[in-house]
Amino acid sequence: MVTTRLGVAITDAHPDDERIIQRSDAALYAAKNTRRNCVVLT
């Protein structure tokens, strides 16, 4: 069985690379703690 969990960060016109990485990382951990086969957007 294959499962997928994704954390996605949406950015504006002037992205701050470090902030995007932090937000997507937080979204990934939120997805991992939620359930299998889900996507969390920030």
Features:
1 helix; alpha+beta; single chain; two-stranded parallel ribbon; 42 residues
Element layout with pairings:
Elements: E1 5-8, H1 17-34, E2 38-41
Parallel strand pairs: 1-2
Plain-language structure description:
The chain is an alpha+beta fold and 42 residues long. The model has no long low-confidence stretch (mean pLDDT 85). The radius of gyration is 11 Å and the shape is elongated. Strands 1-2 form a two-stranded parallel sheet. It has one domain. The protein contains 1 helix and 2 strands, in the order E-H-E.
Binned, the helix content reads 40-55%
| Class by SSE composition | alpha+beta
CA radius of gyration: 11 Å
Mean pLDDT: 85
The total tally of domains equals: 1
Largest sheet: 2 strands, parallel
What's the N-to-C terminus distance?
27 Å
Enumerate how many helices there are, as a single number: 1
Q: Unreliable runs, pLDDT <50, ≥5 residues?
A: none
**What strand order characterises the main sheet?**
1-2
Determine the strand fraction and express it as a percent band.
15-25%
Helix-strand string? EHE
Q: How many E-type strands?
A: 2
Overall outline: elongated
Summarize this structure briefly.
The chain is an alpha+beta fold and 42 residues long. Helices cover 43% and strands 19% of the residues. It has one domain (5-41).
